[in-house]
Structure formats: C-alpha cells, structure tokens
C-alpha cells in the first residue's frame, strides 16, 4: 500500500517525527518515498501487534519504550554486542556480479539465484519459485532502475545469516516497477527472519534515497568503491 506519511502516523497514533525516525532506523516495516510511505498492510499490522506484546505502552507513548529486537537483549537493555554495519556485511556476503544477462524478469531472477553463495540447505529451485511468487503479488522494482527481489517468507533455519546478492545487468529489462522504468540493478535479499529482512530493507532504502548513491550504482562501480560508499552511508545512519 502507499499512503502519505501523515496518514500512516495518524493510523498508528505516532507523531510524524517519530515515524520518520523509526523508518530511518529500520524499526518499522515502512519505506519512505518522498512524503509517502510504502508498506504491506499485513506486515505493518503484525509489527504493531508485536510491539504491543513486547511492551504494554500505548503506541502514542512508545517512542521511548519500544523494544528494538536487533539492538537489545532479552531484558530490553541495549547489548554490548549490538550489530553494526549489518547492511555492509550482508552485501559482502552476497557478493557483486556484473554483466548479468537475460531478456526478461524470469531469466534475470534465475541468473541472480544461480549466483547466490552456497549455504547449508540451499535449494535454488525453491528460492527461485518463491521469488517468482513474490513478483506475481507486486513488482519489487522500486524505481530509478532498481529492484529488490526477495522471497515472500524468510529462508528460515537453512540460512543462519542474511545476504544480499547485487547484480548489475548487462542491459535494462522491463520489471513493472512503480515508475514504469526498466531495471538495471538488482539487490536479491535473503534473510533468516522477518525482523532481519525489515532492518536490511530499511537500511538499503535509506541508501537508495540518496541521489549520489543511485548515480554511483548506475555506473556499476567496482566492489571497493561500492562497499566504501555503503560503509559511509551506514555509519551516517547509525550515527
């Protein structure tokens, strides 16, 4: 769904500043696009219900008491081992690939799946099928020549740590993106849990809102330059 950030904040009982901060920090399954927010109604409802179970504060008062599972221990206090640079780590694990060829979405996704690094329990055919099922619901093309394909559900026990496989296509292909532009860059996102998925998606979306970063990836930079920019942007986000 796509609504104004003001409408989303009102529905959740949040002030607008809190909503935008949570989007930026990856604490809520909403992607910001200008003054609009894009989200899955079912995912946002599950998120809201989960926060109420984790912390009995009313949502309108939750900006100081909400638990962030990615950065807290079981007692709600921030742990010393809070993860940093999780986006950079996932991108490094997945790897960068250039000149990926294919005439349509199906061929490109198949080529991207073939480049997923090995991990215990990996089932390339199942992952590909899940990606296609997700695309049938709605395109993961987010605009500006970028798509973030991912399975409808987390990989689960077979994948212990997340990864993002980055593919620079040989030529742009139609992807039914929200701006109707063809896609030339794919970030194939695989996560073990919904929480990890949403955190990575929010961090990646933060980078993709930066015009300079979009221009950089459109040039298919080498891995050193690409990872350097990711590291800088993720440091800005965490700061």
Kindly describe this structure:
The chain has 239 residues and is of the alpha/beta class. It is built from nine helices and eight strands. It has helices at residues 5-12, 16-25, 41-54, 86-94, 105-114, 124-137, 194-208, 211-218, 223-238, and strands at residues 2-4, 31-33, 36-38, 96-100, 141-143, 146-147, 163-173, 183-190. The chain has a five-stranded mixed beta sheet. Strands 1-3-2 form a three-stranded antiparallel beta sheet. Mean pLDDT is 82; it is low at 52-83.
Short descriptors:
five-stranded mixed β-sheet, 239 residues, three-stranded antiparallel β-sheet, 8 strands, 16% strand, globular, alpha/beta
**Biggest sheet details:** 5 strands, mixed
Question: Helix and strand string, N-terminal first?
Answer: EHHEEHHEHHEEEEHHH
Flag low-confidence runs: 52-83
Which shape, going by the Cα principal axes? Answer: globular
The total count of helices amounts to 9
Helix-residue proportion: 40-55%
Order of strands in the sheet with most strands: 4-7-8-6-5
Give the overall average pLDDT.
82
C-alpha termini separation: 30 Å
The radius of gyration is 18 Å
Q: What structural category characterises the helix and strand content?
A: alpha/beta
Strand content: 15-25%
Number of DSSP strands?
8
Short description:
The chain is 44% helix and 16% strand.
Write the layout of secondary structure elements.
Elements lengths: L1 E3 H8 L3 H10 L5 E3 L2 E3 L2 H14 L31 H9 L1 E5 L4 H10 L9 H14 L3 E3 L2 E2 L15 E11 L9 E8 L3 H15 L2 H8 L4 H16 L1
Parallel strand pairs: 4-7, 6-8
Antiparallel strand pairs: 1-3, 2-3, 5-6, 7-8
Helix pairs in contact: 1-2, 4-9, 5-6
């Amino acid at each position: 769904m796509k609504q104004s950030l003001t409408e989303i904040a009102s529905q959740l009982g949040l002030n607008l500043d809190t909503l935008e901060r949570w989007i930026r920090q990856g604490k809520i399954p909403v992607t910001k696009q200008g003054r609009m927010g894009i989200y899955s109604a079912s995912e946002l409802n599950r998120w809201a219900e989960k926060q109420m179970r984790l912390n009995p504060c009313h949502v309108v008062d939750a900006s100081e008491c909400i638990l962030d599972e990615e950065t807290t221990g079981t007692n709600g206090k921030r742990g010393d081992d809070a993860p940093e640079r999780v986006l950079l780590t996932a991108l490094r694990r997945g790897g960068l690939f250039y000149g990926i060829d294919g005439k349509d979405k199906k061929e490109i996704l198949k080529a991207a799946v073939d480049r997923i690094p090995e991990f215990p329990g990996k089932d390339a055919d199942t992952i590909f099928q899940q990606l296609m099922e997700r695309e049938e619901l709605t395109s993961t093309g987010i605009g500006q020549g970028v798509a973030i394909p991912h399975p409808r559900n987390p990989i689960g026990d077979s994948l212990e740590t997340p990864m993002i496989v980055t593919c620079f296509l040989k030529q742009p292909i139609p992807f039914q993106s929200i701006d109707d532009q063809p896609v030339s860059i794919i970030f194939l996102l695989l996560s073990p849990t919904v929480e990890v998925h949403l955190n990575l998606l929010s961090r990646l979306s933060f980078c993709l809102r930066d015009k300079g970063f979009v221009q950089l990836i459109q040039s298919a930079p080498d891995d050193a330059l690409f990872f350097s920019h990711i590291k800088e942007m993720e440091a800005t986000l965490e700061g």
